[in-house]
């Protein structure tokens, strides 16, 4: 076997396989170059989903003829010093332009600010042309035609034009969020024009341009710092959620990234506040010393590695949870919008019928006052079924208050006026409808509360508080369960052994490739310890967290809270309804139930007046 030196064109085509996976990858690299060049206006035009045409025009610093000749050569860049430990630009590898030129028809036209004329160079399937004079505005225009014409096999792996165009749109949106001062325009024959005017330092205004105006009304600002790592951005309230994770954006030192650890931290921060299958909306920006993060993990530069990943995860989870406790209990404005759309402006009366005793309603025409009776104590349900006596005993040993306990009495005297109570965030209870929904009057509108969902959350938060800060009851196994695992999985599990023991799971090393389970959480009753340990090992390998066990325990607590809370169909007195509202105001996370659904919706007086055409 004879070893040969590969040709420059083939080397570039191999590199293009990693750097330029699809048209969106090329768009990302070209937009990054424009931003690094100091552009304040970037225009992107496409055709055929970017496969036929991709053009990026910027008003950056531009390049002269000598720089153009070097720009299309591998590993030539103006953005990198002698080290990889201080990267402060988006691009730095010097691979994008030669990679694109090796698989497409590439033309670069540029003119530096202050120069009398511009210059142009073309690269077609790896063949480099001469630099020649060209008319050009200050800045740079990069035009890519017939992407992958030189490697037609890659075209078979492309998606539809619509899908590829959508991927380019997503790239532009991410860049627009990261750099709000830059004006972005995306146009082409396969799309309507998408424009994001510059918003200067108003980051939230730019995010609203991309994610919609509703985000601005449902976002909580984040600003936290831990050991020289700073987190800023905005997190949506839990009830403002989406069907996928596409509305989660993360940036590290201004670089858009799609890091699994950051996404995992977002998921952990919103645990037990969002329904299964739904995802929060969040825009997070991490700022730290470039030496503490490696952005050179992959040629696409979308993955990063932190020197202290636990610190970053703790910062994200802690900051989001604190912000949700502080401001996250409010209902999403989209709920009120949906309610407004559901209202009908009138009704179509049925044809008049002659009165007869048979057609007489079974209740008074205007309705009778609701019969309030019973209370939270009367609404108590027996212990949650299906978890066994061990689970209930575990909770009893923690002295957890449940619905069987009397609720916190209302802090207001019986004689308090409606106007005085209405000054509270959730207002004064005025009625109970359909034996499940509390209608409360606030100073500037009304609130409708799902009584079962709200009380379920209150009971769950009491249980959760009891689960924190102490070792949970466990049940010892007569014969330890031996779980065979790869040695590296055993090592990972043992690094989390202390935290697992706090949750009632006691494990020990049993030789190089096995784990012995000595005790399991009593709350879980009879369980498959082997499968739990394997699941934990998989989770730690993928996310470097062991949240699965705590999630199981919280699921049990949530289910018990559901069974032990005031049920739908219970008639409540006004005093009981007001007591529930006051407890909600004092309890973090009460804006959504244990399953993530909203516990109340709010309708402003201005919205009500709009329904009747009064505004």
List the helices and strands and how they pair.
Elements: H1 8-19, H2 23-36, E1 41-47, E2 53-58, H3 65-71, H4 96-103, E3 105-111, E4 118-124, E5 127-128, E6 132-134, E7 139-145, H5 161-178, E8 183-188, E9 191-196, H6 203-211, H7 213-217, E10 219-226, E11 229-236, E12 241-242, E13 248-252, E14 255-257, H8 260-269, E15 279-280, E16 282-287, E17 293-294, E18 305-306, H9 309-327, H10 333-342, H11 388-397, H12 418-421, E19 428-433, E20 437-442, E21 445-450, H13 451-467, E22 474-484, H14 487-495, H15 497-502, E23 506-509, E24 514-521, H16 529-543, H17 547-564, H18 574-586, E25 600-604, H19 605-611
Parallel strand pairs: 1-8, 13-16
Antiparallel strand pairs: 1-2, 2-7, 3-4, 3-7, 4-5, 4-6, 8-9, 10-11, 11-16, 12-15, 13-14, 17-18, 19-20, 20-21, 21-25, 22-24, 23-24
Helix pairs in contact: 1-4, 2-5, 8-9, 13-17, 13-18, 14-16
């Amino acid at each position: 076997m004879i070893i040969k030196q590969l040709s420059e064109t083939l080397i570039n085509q191999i590199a293009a396989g990693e750097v330029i996976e699809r048209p969106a990858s090329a768009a990302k690299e070209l937009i990054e170059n424009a931003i690094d060049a100091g552009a304040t206006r970037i225009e992107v035009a496409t055709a055929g989903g970017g496969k036929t045409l991709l053009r990026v025009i910027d008003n950056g610093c531009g390049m002269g003829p000598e720089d153009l000749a070097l720009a299309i050569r591998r590993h030539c860049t103006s953005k990198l010093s002698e080290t990889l430990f201080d990267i402060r630009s988006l691009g730095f590898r010097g691979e994008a332009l030669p990679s694109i030129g090796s698989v497409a028809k590439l033309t670069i036209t540029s003119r530096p600010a202050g120069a009398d004329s511009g210059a142009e160079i073309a690269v077609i399937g790896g063949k480099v042309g001469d630099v020649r004079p060209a008319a050009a505005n200050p800045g740079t225009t990069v035009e890519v035609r017939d992407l992958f014409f030189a490697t037609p096999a890659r075209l078979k792996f492309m998606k539809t034009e619509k899908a590829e165009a959508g991927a380019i749109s997503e790239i532009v949106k991410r860049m627009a969020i990261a750099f709000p001062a830059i004006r972005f325009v995306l146009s082409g024959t396969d799309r309507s024009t998408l424009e994001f005017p510059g918003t200067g330092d108003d980051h939230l205004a730019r995010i609203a341009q991309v994610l919609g105006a509703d985000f601005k009304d449902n976002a909580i600002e984040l600003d936290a710092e831990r050991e020289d790592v700073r987190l800023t951005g905005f997190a949506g309230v839990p009830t403002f959620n989406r069907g996928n994770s596409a509305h989660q954006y993360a940036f590290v030192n201004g670089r858009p990234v799609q890091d699994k650890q950051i996404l995992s931290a977002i998921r952990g921060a919103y645990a037990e506040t969002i329904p299964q299958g739904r995802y929060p909306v969040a825009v997070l920006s991490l700022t730290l010393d470039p030496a503490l993060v490696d952005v050179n993990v992959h040629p696409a530069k979308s993955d990063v590695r932190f020197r202290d990943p636990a610190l970053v995860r703790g910062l994200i989870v802690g900051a989001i949870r604190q912000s949700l406790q502080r401001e996250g209990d409010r209902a999403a404005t989209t709920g009120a919008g949906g309610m407004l759309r559901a209202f009908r402006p009138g009704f179509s009366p049925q044809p008049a019928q002659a009165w007869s005793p048979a057609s007489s309603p079974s209740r008074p025409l205007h309705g009778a006052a609701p019969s309030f009776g019973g209370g939270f104590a009367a609404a108590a349900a027996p212990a949650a079924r299906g978890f066994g006596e061990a689970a209930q005993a575990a909770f009893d040993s923690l002295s957890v208050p449940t619905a069987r306990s009397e609720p916190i009495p209302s802090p207001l005297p019986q004689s308090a006026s409606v106007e005085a109570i209405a000054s509270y965030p959730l207002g004064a209870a005025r009625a109970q409808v359909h034996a499940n929904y509390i209608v409360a009057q606030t100073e500037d509108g009304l609130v409708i509360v799902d009584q079962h969902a709200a009380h379920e959350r209150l009971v769950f938060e009491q249980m959760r508080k009891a689960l924190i800060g102490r070792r949970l009851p466990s049940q010892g196994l007569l014969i330890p369960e031996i779980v065979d695992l790869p040695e590296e999985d055993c090592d990972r599990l043992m690094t989390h052994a202390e935290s697992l023991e706090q949750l009632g799971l006691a494990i020990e090393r049993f030789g190089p490739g096995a784990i012995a389970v000595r005790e399991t959480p009593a709350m879980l009753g009879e369980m498959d310890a082997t499968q739990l340990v394997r699941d934990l090992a998989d989770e730690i390998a993928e996310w470097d967290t062991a949240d699965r066990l705590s999630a199981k325990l919280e699921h049990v607590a949530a289910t018990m809270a559901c069974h032990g809370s005031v049920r739908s169909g219970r008639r409540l007195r006004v005093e009981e309804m007001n007591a529930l509202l006051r407890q909600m105001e004092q309890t973090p996370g009460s804006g959504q139930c244990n399953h993530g659904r909203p516990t109340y919706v709010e309708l402003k007086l201005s919205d009500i007046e709009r329904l009747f055409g009064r505004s």
